[in-house]
Amino acid sequence: MAGIYIHIPFCKHKCTYCDFHFSTTFEEYRQEMIDSICQEIELRHEYLAGKEIKTIYFGGGTPSILLESELKQIIKTISTQFEINSRAEVTFEANPDDINEEALILWKSVGVNRLSIGLQSFKQSDLDWMNRAHNVEESLNCVQLAQKHGFDNLTVDLMYGLPDLNMSEWSNHIQKVIDMGVPHISAYCLTIEEKTALSNWVNRGKISTPNEDVQSDQFMMLLETLESNGFEQYEISNFSSPGHESKHNSNYWKGEWYLGVGPSAHSFNGTSRSWNITNNQKYIRAVKVKSEIFETEFLSKLDQFNERILIGLRTIYGVKRTELNDILPISSGFESVLRGFKGKGWIQEKGNVLTLTKEGKLRADFIASELFID
């Protein structure tokens, strides 16, 4: 199984918390960018040679601001360069303010069968300080409209750990999504990324974020509420009803191959990882002259071992001992640290598989880093 990720580096607004690669001033070169993305697809089709494509993911940035001609151009290029499974999952990230009848009909017609909608919050003051382009009413209406047009396989993003977000409000946000009949939820704790407007505000004392105890309480409320409503937490931040897991993202976590296209996109082929130029104009120029548009890191056995720990423990699939042993023999030091975490009730082992407990999920990154081999 292999996947393709397309990074669309365009946004209407700059959200205050976001450090992803994008531009809000792109009109003069938007067609050049689309042409470059298509040319990169043609230049790098050998990366997944012989592999059937079972997932395609449009992320960004904001894919939902693509024009009809631009989206069709990219889809056509992918279909001519790769063997696409007839039942491939095709995910499209969309902002609520871009979702309307015309857009939904277009997306459906080109093969998009899964929507990822960035709601973030149902509290207008949150959307305001985030500088989101949509309002609460659009959040409520867009999901219903998407379902009306046959998008039953959809996911929404929510954020917790926000300034002034109390437990009652957070409970209300979760319940709203459940009541909408959405089968998949991605929920992320607000993080303060460097060089963002939010980071500047926090450093100046203009805005404050909840302490770790509040964030942990909101995380546990999320987990317990969704589980009691039939959702499964199959990755730390991702919850789905049966059969609605993201196939594309699950491939990342299982170590499957994928090609990333567009500025800042990453690719992985089992033994190496590459990442594209993170500058729109430099990316366009590099593609035109067919020069190196990406850097590559070859993963040592040590890197592969640690990466399986880091990614695998975040998921319901866990980490198989046999898989780790195939990469590097498990050391006595590793076993000692593992016993300590088992004793604390943070890790459980069933058969051959190591997974985190509910308490362990609160400490996922710390646990993984302690299990890394230096």
Can you walk me through this structure?
The protein has 374 residues and is of the alpha/beta class. It folds into 2 domains: 252 residues, Aldolase class I (TIM Barrel), CATH 3.20.20.70; 71 residues, Winged helix-like DNA-binding domain superfamily/Winged helix DNA-binding domain (Arc Repressor Mutant, subunit A, Orthogonal Bundle), CATH 1.10.10. It is built from 15 helices and 15 strands. Helix 1 runs parallel beside helix 2 and helix 6 packs parallel to helix 8. The longest helix has 17 residues.
Shape field: globular
Strand content: 15-25%
> How many strands?
15
Summed up, the domain count is: 2
Quick summary of this structure?
The protein has helices spanning 30-43, 68-81, 101-109, 124-130, 136-148, 167-180, 197-203, 212-228, 247-254, 280-288, 301-312, 321-327, 332-344, 358-361, 364-371, and strands spanning 2-8, 53-60, 84-94, 114-120, 154-160, 184-189, 232-235, 238-240, 257-261, 266-268, 272-276, 294-298, 319-320, 347-350, 353-356.
